[in-house]
Design brief:
This protein has 481 residues and is mostly helical. The chain has helices spanning 2-15, 18-45, 51-81, 87-106, 110-138, 144-162, 165-168, 176-192, 217-223, 225-228, 230-248, 254-257, 262-282, 284-293, 296-303, 311-340, 348-366, 371-396, 408-418, 423-433, 438-445, 449-463, 468-480. It has two domains: 18-195 and 229-396, Growth Hormone, Chain: A; 408-480, Winged helix-like DNA-binding domain superfamily/Winged helix DNA-binding domain (Arc Repressor Mutant, subunit A), CATH 1.10.10. The two termini are 35 Å apart.
Length: 481
Amino acid sequence: MNIKNQNLQSLQSSLFTSRNLYCFLLIFLCFFLTSAGYLSWLYHLMEFVPHKAADLLTMGGGYLLQAAGIALAVHFVFRRNGSSVSRQLFSLAVVICIVCLIPSLLSRSAAGTIVFGLLMNLFCGLIAAFYLHILTFESDGDFRAILFGASYAAATIASWLLSFSKNHRFLQSPNVLLIYFILTAVLLILILHRSPAPDSVSPMNSVPESPISLYSAAGKEKKGRAAQRLPLLIGATVLVFSLVKNIGFGFPSADLYAGVSLEASRAFYAVGLLIAGYITEKNRKYGAVCTMAALVTPFLILSLSGEPIPQTIFWALDYFVYGFFSVYRIILFSDLAKARGLTYYAGFGLLLGRIGDAVGTSLCTLCADHVAALVILAALLFVAAIFLFFYLYQILYTSVPPTQHPSETELFELFSSRYDLSAREQEVLQLLLEKKTSSDIAEALFISDRTVKFHIHNLLAKTGSKNRTELLSKYRAEMSA
Protein backbone atom coordinates (compact mmCIF):
# COMPACT_ATOMS: atom_id res chain seq x y z
CA MET A 1 0.00 0.00 0.00
CA ASN A 2 2.87 2.34 0.82
CA ILE A 3 4.49 1.56 -2.52
CA LYS A 4 1.22 2.37 -4.28
CA ASN A 5 0.94 5.70 -2.46
CA GLN A 6 4.55 6.51 -3.31
CA ASN A 7 3.91 5.82 -7.00
CA LEU A 8 0.81 8.02 -6.90
CA GLN A 9 2.74 10.84 -5.27
CA SER A 10 5.52 10.46 -7.83
CA LEU A 11 2.98 10.60 -10.65
CA GLN A 12 1.36 13.73 -9.21
CA SER A 13 4.69 15.46 -8.70
CA SER A 14 5.63 14.67 -12.29
CA LEU A 15 2.32 15.91 -13.67
CA PHE A 16 2.10 19.16 -11.73
CA THR A 17 5.31 20.74 -13.00
CA SER A 18 5.56 24.38 -13.95
CA ARG A 19 5.81 23.56 -17.64
CA ASN A 20 2.72 21.34 -17.55
CA LEU A 21 0.76 23.99 -15.67
CA TYR A 22 1.91 26.53 -18.25
CA CYS A 23 0.69 24.28 -21.11
CA PHE A 24 -2.63 23.70 -19.33
CA LEU A 25 -3.24 27.41 -18.81
CA LEU A 26 -2.20 28.29 -22.35
CA ILE A 27 -4.48 25.72 -23.99
CA PHE A 28 -7.32 26.58 -21.62
CA LEU A 29 -7.18 30.29 -22.54
CA CYS A 30 -6.79 29.60 -26.27
CA PHE A 31 -9.69 27.17 -26.44
CA PHE A 32 -11.86 29.31 -24.16
CA LEU A 33 -11.37 32.31 -26.45
CA THR A 34 -11.77 30.47 -29.76
CA SER A 35 -14.62 28.13 -28.78
CA ALA A 36 -16.68 30.79 -26.98
CA GLY A 37 -16.05 33.19 -29.85
CA TYR A 38 -17.20 30.51 -32.28
CA LEU A 39 -20.45 30.04 -30.33
CA SER A 40 -21.06 33.81 -30.25
CA TRP A 41 -20.56 33.94 -34.00
CA LEU A 42 -23.01 31.06 -34.50
CA TYR A 43 -25.67 32.82 -32.45
CA HIS A 44 -25.20 36.08 -34.37
CA LEU A 45 -25.22 34.29 -37.73
CA MET A 46 -28.53 32.63 -36.89
CA GLU A 47 -30.12 36.10 -36.88
CA PHE A 48 -29.48 36.43 -40.64
CA VAL A 49 -29.60 33.00 -42.29
CA PRO A 50 -31.79 29.87 -42.06
CA HIS A 51 -30.64 27.23 -39.61
CA LYS A 52 -29.50 24.82 -42.33
CA ALA A 53 -27.33 27.49 -43.92
CA ALA A 54 -25.94 28.38 -40.49
CA ASP A 55 -24.95 24.74 -39.93
CA LEU A 56 -23.21 24.51 -43.30
CA LEU A 57 -21.38 27.81 -42.77
CA THR A 58 -20.23 27.14 -39.22
CA MET A 59 -19.63 23.41 -39.01
CA GLY A 60 -18.92 23.03 -42.73
CA GLY A 61 -17.07 26.15 -43.87
CA GLY A 62 -15.83 27.14 -40.41
CA TYR A 63 -14.31 23.74 -39.65
CA LEU A 64 -12.68 23.52 -43.08
CA LEU A 65 -11.08 26.91 -42.56
CA GLN A 66 -9.83 25.81 -39.15
CA ALA A 67 -8.19 22.87 -40.91
CA ALA A 68 -6.74 25.29 -43.47
CA GLY A 69 -5.30 27.43 -40.66
CA ILE A 70 -3.55 24.39 -39.17
CA ALA A 71 -2.24 23.46 -42.62
CA LEU A 72 -0.80 26.96 -43.09
CA ALA A 73 1.01 26.76 -39.76
CA VAL A 74 2.31 23.28 -40.55
CA HIS A 75 3.67 24.28 -43.96
CA PHE A 76 4.94 27.80 -43.39
CA VAL A 77 6.02 27.63 -39.74
CA PHE A 78 6.84 24.16 -38.45
CA ARG A 79 8.23 22.51 -41.59
CA ARG A 80 10.57 25.48 -42.07
CA ASN A 81 11.43 26.56 -38.55
CA GLY A 82 11.67 23.15 -36.91
CA SER A 83 10.76 22.68 -33.27
CA SER A 84 10.74 26.31 -32.16
CA VAL A 85 7.45 28.17 -31.77
CA SER A 86 7.53 31.81 -32.81
CA ARG A 87 5.90 33.64 -29.93
CA GLN A 88 5.49 36.67 -32.19
CA LEU A 89 3.59 34.72 -34.85
CA PHE A 90 1.49 33.04 -32.16
CA SER A 91 0.61 36.44 -30.68
CA LEU A 92 -0.15 37.85 -34.13
CA ALA A 93 -2.59 35.01 -34.82
CA VAL A 94 -4.41 35.73 -31.55
CA VAL A 95 -4.62 39.46 -32.31
CA ILE A 96 -5.95 38.93 -35.84
CA CYS A 97 -8.45 36.37 -34.52
CA ILE A 98 -9.97 38.89 -32.08
CA VAL A 99 -9.86 41.60 -34.78
CA CYS A 100 -11.97 39.35 -37.03
CA LEU A 101 -14.24 38.32 -34.16
CA ILE A 102 -15.31 41.90 -33.40
CA PRO A 103 -17.00 42.68 -36.77
CA SER A 104 -18.35 39.12 -37.00
CA LEU A 105 -20.38 39.83 -33.83
CA LEU A 106 -21.20 43.50 -34.46
CA SER A 107 -21.94 43.45 -38.19
CA ARG A 108 -25.54 44.19 -39.10
CA SER A 109 -25.33 42.37 -42.43
CA ALA A 110 -25.19 38.70 -43.27
CA ALA A 111 -22.21 39.21 -45.59
CA GLY A 112 -20.07 40.91 -42.95
CA THR A 113 -20.96 38.32 -40.32
CA ILE A 114 -20.14 35.45 -42.67
CA VAL A 115 -16.88 36.83 -44.08
CA PHE A 116 -15.33 37.94 -40.80
CA GLY A 117 -16.58 34.84 -39.00
CA LEU A 118 -14.95 32.54 -41.54
CA LEU A 119 -11.71 34.52 -41.33
CA MET A 120 -11.85 34.16 -37.56
CA ASN A 121 -12.05 30.38 -37.99
CA LEU A 122 -8.93 30.42 -40.16
CA PHE A 123 -6.97 32.04 -37.34
CA CYS A 124 -8.57 29.73 -34.79
CA GLY A 125 -6.86 26.93 -36.73
CA LEU A 126 -3.53 28.75 -36.63
CA ILE A 127 -3.85 29.23 -32.87
CA ALA A 128 -4.67 25.53 -32.41
CA ALA A 129 -1.59 24.52 -34.40
CA PHE A 130 0.62 26.58 -32.09
CA TYR A 131 -0.77 25.30 -28.80
CA LEU A 132 -0.81 21.66 -29.97
CA HIS A 133 2.85 22.05 -30.90
CA ILE A 134 3.60 23.43 -27.42
CA LEU A 135 1.61 20.60 -25.82
CA THR A 136 3.64 18.02 -27.74
CA PHE A 137 7.14 19.41 -27.38
CA GLU A 138 7.18 21.72 -24.36
CA SER A 139 5.22 19.79 -21.74
CA ASP A 140 7.04 17.63 -19.19
CA GLY A 141 6.74 13.85 -19.37
CA ASP A 142 4.14 11.78 -21.13
CA PHE A 143 1.05 13.57 -19.82
CA ARG A 144 -0.30 15.06 -23.03
CA ALA A 145 -3.63 13.22 -22.96
CA ILE A 146 -4.65 14.37 -19.50
CA LEU A 147 -3.32 17.90 -20.10
CA PHE A 148 -5.28 18.22 -23.32
CA GLY A 149 -8.49 16.69 -21.95
CA ALA A 150 -8.40 18.76 -18.74
CA SER A 151 -7.64 22.07 -20.47
CA TYR A 152 -10.38 21.61 -23.07
CA ALA A 153 -12.82 20.50 -20.37
CA ALA A 154 -12.02 23.54 -18.21
CA ALA A 155 -12.56 25.88 -21.16
CA THR A 156 -15.86 24.18 -22.00
CA ILE A 157 -17.09 24.54 -18.43
CA ALA A 158 -15.94 28.18 -18.36
CA SER A 159 -17.98 29.03 -21.47
CA TRP A 160 -20.98 27.26 -19.91
CA LEU A 161 -20.67 29.33 -16.72
CA LEU A 162 -20.25 32.47 -18.82
CA SER A 163 -23.57 31.80 -20.52
CA PHE A 164 -25.51 32.11 -17.23
CA SER A 165 -25.34 35.92 -17.33
CA LYS A 166 -28.07 38.02 -18.96
CA ASN A 167 -30.71 35.31 -18.67
CA HIS A 168 -28.51 32.67 -20.35
CA ARG A 169 -27.91 34.92 -23.36
CA PHE A 170 -24.58 36.49 -22.48
CA LEU A 171 -22.70 34.79 -25.33
CA GLN A 172 -25.21 36.35 -27.70
CA SER A 173 -24.69 39.83 -26.29
CA PRO A 174 -22.13 42.36 -27.60
CA ASN A 175 -21.04 42.75 -23.97
CA VAL A 176 -19.25 39.40 -24.27
CA LEU A 177 -16.57 41.20 -26.29
CA LEU A 178 -15.27 42.68 -23.04
CA ILE A 179 -14.57 39.15 -21.78
CA TYR A 180 -12.87 38.31 -25.07
CA PHE A 181 -10.65 41.39 -24.80
CA ILE A 182 -9.60 40.38 -21.28
CA LEU A 183 -8.91 36.81 -22.41
CA THR A 184 -6.84 38.11 -25.33
CA ALA A 185 -4.76 40.38 -23.09
CA VAL A 186 -4.02 37.61 -20.59
CA LEU A 187 -3.25 35.20 -23.40
CA LEU A 188 -0.80 37.59 -25.06
CA ILE A 189 1.03 38.10 -21.79
CA LEU A 190 1.26 34.34 -21.33
CA ILE A 191 2.47 33.71 -24.88
CA LEU A 192 5.11 36.40 -24.84
CA HIS A 193 6.26 35.33 -21.38
CA ARG A 194 9.03 32.79 -21.59
CA SER A 195 7.92 29.24 -20.89
CA PRO A 196 9.12 28.15 -17.44
CA ALA A 197 12.26 26.06 -17.14
CA PRO A 198 11.92 22.31 -16.67
CA ASP A 199 11.44 21.16 -13.10
CA SER A 200 13.99 18.96 -11.41
CA VAL A 201 11.58 16.02 -11.16
CA SER A 202 12.12 13.46 -13.87
CA PRO A 203 8.75 12.37 -15.19
CA MET A 204 10.22 9.36 -16.95
CA ASN A 205 10.31 7.50 -13.63
CA SER A 206 6.56 7.09 -13.57
CA VAL A 207 5.05 7.69 -16.97
CA PRO A 208 1.80 5.86 -17.77
CA GLU A 209 1.89 2.96 -20.21
CA SER A 210 2.18 4.25 -23.74
CA PRO A 211 3.01 2.68 -27.13
CA ILE A 212 5.10 5.72 -28.01
CA SER A 213 8.20 3.57 -28.63
CA LEU A 214 6.34 1.87 -31.46
CA TYR A 215 6.07 5.22 -33.23
CA SER A 216 9.83 5.59 -33.16
CA ALA A 217 12.56 4.21 -35.35
CA ALA A 218 12.86 1.17 -33.06
CA GLY A 219 9.17 0.51 -33.46
CA LYS A 220 9.48 0.78 -37.22
CA GLU A 221 12.21 -1.85 -37.15
CA LYS A 222 10.06 -4.16 -35.01
CA LYS A 223 6.88 -3.83 -36.98
CA GLY A 224 8.36 -3.61 -40.46
CA ARG A 225 6.81 -1.92 -43.44
CA ALA A 226 3.41 -1.51 -41.81
CA ALA A 227 4.84 0.90 -39.24
CA GLN A 228 6.57 2.87 -41.98
CA ARG A 229 3.11 3.70 -43.32
CA LEU A 230 1.97 4.60 -39.82
CA PRO A 231 1.33 8.36 -40.45
CA LEU A 232 -0.92 7.54 -43.42
CA LEU A 233 -2.75 4.85 -41.47
CA ILE A 234 -3.30 7.09 -38.44
CA GLY A 235 -4.51 9.90 -40.70
CA ALA A 236 -7.01 7.66 -42.48
CA THR A 237 -8.28 6.32 -39.14
CA VAL A 238 -8.81 9.81 -37.71
CA LEU A 239 -10.58 10.97 -40.86
CA VAL A 240 -12.94 7.99 -41.10
CA PHE A 241 -13.71 8.05 -37.37
CA SER A 242 -14.67 11.73 -37.61
CA LEU A 243 -16.82 11.09 -40.67
CA VAL A 244 -18.77 8.27 -39.03
CA LYS A 245 -19.28 10.18 -35.82
CA ASN A 246 -20.63 13.33 -37.50
CA ILE A 247 -22.80 11.62 -40.11
CA GLY A 248 -24.92 10.27 -37.26
CA PHE A 249 -25.54 13.64 -35.62
CA GLY A 250 -24.55 17.12 -36.76
CA PHE A 251 -25.64 19.36 -33.85
CA PRO A 252 -28.44 21.03 -35.86
CA SER A 253 -28.90 24.67 -34.91
CA ALA A 254 -32.64 24.27 -35.48
CA ASP A 255 -32.74 22.50 -32.10
CA LEU A 256 -31.57 25.71 -30.43
CA TYR A 257 -34.84 27.32 -31.45
CA ALA A 258 -36.66 24.37 -29.84
CA GLY A 259 -35.14 25.00 -26.43
CA VAL A 260 -31.93 22.94 -26.48
CA SER A 261 -29.18 24.65 -24.46
CA LEU A 262 -25.96 24.51 -26.44
CA GLU A 263 -23.74 25.49 -23.52
CA ALA A 264 -25.39 23.04 -21.07
CA SER A 265 -25.03 20.23 -23.62
CA ARG A 266 -21.34 21.04 -23.94
CA ALA A 267 -20.93 20.35 -20.23
CA PHE A 268 -21.22 16.67 -21.19
CA TYR A 269 -18.39 17.28 -23.64
CA ALA A 270 -16.27 18.36 -20.66
CA VAL A 271 -17.12 15.12 -18.83
CA GLY A 272 -16.17 13.06 -21.88
CA LEU A 273 -12.90 14.96 -22.26
CA LEU A 274 -11.91 14.38 -18.65
CA ILE A 275 -12.72 10.66 -18.73
CA ALA A 276 -11.04 10.18 -22.11
CA GLY A 277 -7.97 12.11 -21.01
CA TYR A 278 -7.61 10.01 -17.85
CA ILE A 279 -8.16 6.66 -19.60
CA THR A 280 -5.86 7.49 -22.50
CA GLU A 281 -3.16 8.70 -20.13
CA LYS A 282 -3.42 5.53 -18.08
CA ASN A 283 -3.20 3.31 -21.13
CA ARG A 284 -3.29 4.35 -24.79
CA LYS A 285 -4.81 1.01 -25.71
CA TYR A 286 -7.82 1.56 -23.44
CA GLY A 287 -8.38 5.02 -24.90
CA ALA A 288 -8.32 3.59 -28.41
CA VAL A 289 -10.83 0.85 -27.56
CA CYS A 290 -13.20 3.34 -25.89
CA THR A 291 -13.07 5.59 -28.95
CA MET A 292 -13.81 2.68 -31.25
CA ALA A 293 -16.73 1.64 -29.06
CA ALA A 294 -18.08 5.19 -29.22
CA LEU A 295 -18.60 4.77 -32.98
CA VAL A 296 -21.80 2.90 -32.16
CA THR A 297 -23.35 6.21 -31.04
CA PRO A 298 -24.15 7.54 -34.55
CA PHE A 299 -26.18 4.42 -35.33
CA LEU A 300 -27.98 4.66 -32.01
CA ILE A 301 -28.97 8.26 -32.68
CA LEU A 302 -30.03 7.53 -36.28
CA SER A 303 -32.15 4.57 -35.18
CA LEU A 304 -33.91 6.67 -32.51
CA SER A 305 -34.33 9.81 -34.62
CA GLY A 306 -38.03 9.17 -35.19
CA GLU A 307 -38.82 8.36 -31.58
CA PRO A 308 -40.37 10.88 -29.13
CA ILE A 309 -37.08 11.46 -27.34
CA PRO A 310 -36.00 14.98 -26.32
CA GLN A 311 -33.23 16.29 -28.57
CA THR A 312 -31.34 17.40 -25.49
CA ILE A 313 -30.55 13.73 -24.81
CA PHE A 314 -29.04 13.35 -28.29
CA TRP A 315 -26.95 16.50 -27.83
CA ALA A 316 -25.68 15.38 -24.42
CA LEU A 317 -24.87 11.85 -25.61
CA ASP A 318 -23.10 12.99 -28.75
CA TYR A 319 -21.08 15.64 -26.95
CA PHE A 320 -20.04 13.09 -24.33
CA VAL A 321 -18.62 10.63 -26.87
CA TYR A 322 -17.15 13.53 -28.85
CA GLY A 323 -14.76 14.00 -25.93
CA PHE A 324 -13.21 10.58 -26.68
CA PHE A 325 -12.76 11.40 -30.37
CA SER A 326 -11.23 14.78 -29.53
CA VAL A 327 -8.60 13.31 -27.20
CA TYR A 328 -7.79 10.24 -29.29
CA ARG A 329 -7.14 12.03 -32.57
CA ILE A 330 -4.92 14.63 -30.93
CA ILE A 331 -2.86 12.11 -28.96
CA LEU A 332 -2.32 9.76 -31.90
CA PHE A 333 -0.45 12.41 -33.86
CA SER A 334 1.09 14.03 -30.79
CA ASP A 335 2.72 10.73 -29.79
CA LEU A 336 3.91 10.22 -33.35
CA ALA A 337 5.38 13.73 -33.56
CA LYS A 338 7.10 13.42 -30.19
CA ALA A 339 8.62 10.02 -30.88
CA ARG A 340 9.93 10.78 -34.35
CA GLY A 341 10.84 14.39 -33.71
CA LEU A 342 8.74 15.53 -36.68
CA THR A 343 7.31 18.80 -35.41
CA TYR A 344 4.76 19.33 -38.15
CA TYR A 345 2.84 16.16 -37.18
CA ALA A 346 1.61 17.68 -33.90
CA GLY A 347 -1.44 19.43 -35.42
CA PHE A 348 -2.42 16.79 -37.96
CA GLY A 349 -4.89 15.08 -35.62
CA LEU A 350 -7.04 18.19 -35.34
CA LEU A 351 -6.53 19.08 -39.01
CA LEU A 352 -7.85 15.75 -40.31
CA GLY A 353 -10.45 15.62 -37.57
CA ARG A 354 -11.84 19.00 -38.60
CA ILE A 355 -12.04 17.88 -42.23
CA GLY A 356 -13.98 14.80 -41.13
CA ASP A 357 -16.18 16.93 -38.86
CA ALA A 358 -16.94 19.35 -41.70
CA VAL A 359 -17.71 16.73 -44.33
CA GLY A 360 -19.68 14.48 -41.95
CA THR A 361 -21.74 17.34 -40.54
CA SER A 362 -22.48 18.72 -44.02
CA LEU A 363 -23.68 15.31 -45.19
CA CYS A 364 -25.81 14.97 -42.06
CA THR A 365 -27.34 18.40 -42.67
CA LEU A 366 -27.97 18.01 -46.40
CA CYS A 367 -29.38 14.47 -46.08
CA ALA A 368 -31.36 15.00 -42.87
CA ASP A 369 -34.55 13.88 -44.64
CA HIS A 370 -32.93 10.71 -45.99
CA VAL A 371 -32.12 8.74 -42.86
CA ALA A 372 -31.82 5.44 -44.74
CA ALA A 373 -29.11 6.87 -47.00
CA LEU A 374 -27.22 8.20 -43.97
CA VAL A 375 -27.42 4.81 -42.25
CA ILE A 376 -26.05 3.03 -45.33
CA LEU A 377 -23.22 5.56 -45.74
CA ALA A 378 -22.38 5.43 -42.04
CA ALA A 379 -22.39 1.62 -42.14
CA LEU A 380 -19.97 1.52 -45.08
CA LEU A 381 -17.64 3.96 -43.36
CA PHE A 382 -18.00 2.01 -40.12
CA VAL A 383 -16.72 -1.12 -41.86
CA ALA A 384 -13.76 0.90 -43.13
CA ALA A 385 -13.21 2.24 -39.61
CA ILE A 386 -13.14 -1.30 -38.16
CA PHE A 387 -10.60 -2.40 -40.75
CA LEU A 388 -8.36 0.62 -40.18
CA PHE A 389 -8.63 0.35 -36.41
CA PHE A 390 -7.79 -3.36 -36.41
CA TYR A 391 -4.76 -2.70 -38.62
CA LEU A 392 -3.63 0.20 -36.40
CA TYR A 393 -4.25 -1.83 -33.25
CA GLN A 394 -1.99 -4.61 -34.51
CA ILE A 395 0.85 -2.16 -35.07
CA LEU A 396 0.55 -0.02 -31.95
CA TYR A 397 -1.00 -2.09 -29.21
CA THR A 398 -0.01 -5.73 -29.68
CA SER A 399 3.11 -7.09 -28.06
CA VAL A 400 6.17 -7.72 -30.17
CA PRO A 401 8.19 -10.91 -29.65
CA PRO A 402 11.74 -10.34 -28.42
CA THR A 403 14.34 -9.95 -31.13
CA GLN A 404 18.07 -10.33 -31.26
CA HIS A 405 20.31 -7.31 -30.97
CA PRO A 406 20.17 -5.36 -34.25
CA SER A 407 23.10 -5.56 -36.63
CA GLU A 408 25.28 -2.59 -37.58
CA THR A 409 23.28 -2.18 -40.79
CA GLU A 410 20.01 -2.18 -38.86
CA LEU A 411 21.37 0.38 -36.40
CA PHE A 412 22.39 2.61 -39.28
CA GLU A 413 18.90 2.32 -40.77
CA LEU A 414 17.35 3.18 -37.40
CA PHE A 415 19.50 6.29 -37.08
CA SER A 416 18.68 7.34 -40.65
CA SER A 417 14.97 6.83 -40.06
CA ARG A 418 15.04 8.69 -36.75
CA TYR A 419 16.43 11.82 -38.39
CA ASP A 420 14.61 11.42 -41.72
CA LEU A 421 17.82 11.21 -43.77
CA SER A 422 17.55 11.02 -47.54
CA ALA A 423 19.27 8.25 -49.53
CA ARG A 424 22.11 10.56 -50.55
CA GLU A 425 22.55 11.84 -47.00
CA GLN A 426 22.83 8.24 -45.83
CA GLU A 427 25.57 7.60 -48.38
CA VAL A 428 27.49 10.67 -47.21
CA LEU A 429 27.07 9.68 -43.55
CA GLN A 430 28.33 6.16 -44.27
CA LEU A 431 31.49 7.57 -45.84
CA LEU A 432 31.95 9.99 -42.95
CA LEU A 433 31.81 7.04 -40.58
CA GLU A 434 34.61 5.51 -42.66
CA LYS A 435 36.61 8.71 -41.96
CA LYS A 436 36.57 9.86 -45.57
CA THR A 437 37.33 13.49 -46.39
CA SER A 438 35.05 15.72 -48.44
CA SER A 439 37.22 15.15 -51.51
CA ASP A 440 37.09 11.39 -51.00
CA ILE A 441 33.30 11.53 -50.68
CA ALA A 442 32.96 13.66 -53.81
CA GLU A 443 35.11 11.22 -55.75
CA ALA A 444 33.28 8.14 -54.44
CA LEU A 445 29.81 9.54 -55.20
CA PHE A 446 30.75 11.35 -58.42
CA ILE A 447 29.57 14.72 -57.12
CA SER A 448 31.24 18.07 -56.54
CA ASP A 449 32.86 19.19 -53.28
CA ARG A 450 30.19 21.88 -53.04
CA THR A 451 27.43 19.27 -53.21
CA VAL A 452 29.17 17.23 -50.51
CA LYS A 453 29.26 20.28 -48.23
CA PHE A 454 25.56 20.86 -48.94
CA HIS A 455 24.68 17.31 -47.83
CA ILE A 456 26.91 17.53 -44.75
CA HIS A 457 25.22 20.83 -43.82
CA ASN A 458 21.83 19.07 -44.03
CA LEU A 459 23.12 16.19 -41.92
CA LEU A 460 24.30 18.57 -39.22
CA ALA A 461 21.01 20.50 -39.27
CA LYS A 462 18.80 17.40 -39.06
CA THR A 463 20.77 15.80 -36.23
CA GLY A 464 21.33 19.05 -34.33
CA SER A 465 25.12 18.72 -34.55
CA LYS A 466 27.58 21.62 -34.69
CA ASN A 467 30.29 19.87 -36.72
CA ARG A 468 31.32 16.51 -38.16
CA THR A 469 32.99 15.37 -34.96
CA GLU A 470 29.83 15.99 -32.95
CA LEU A 471 27.76 14.23 -35.63
CA LEU A 472 29.91 11.09 -35.46
CA SER A 473 29.94 11.16 -31.66
CA LYS A 474 26.17 11.49 -31.65
CA TYR A 475 25.82 8.54 -33.98
CA ARG A 476 28.04 6.27 -31.88
CA ALA A 477 26.37 7.34 -28.63
CA GLU A 478 22.84 6.68 -29.91
CA MET A 479 23.73 3.39 -31.54
CA SER A 480 25.41 2.06 -28.41
CA ALA A 481 22.49 3.07 -26.16
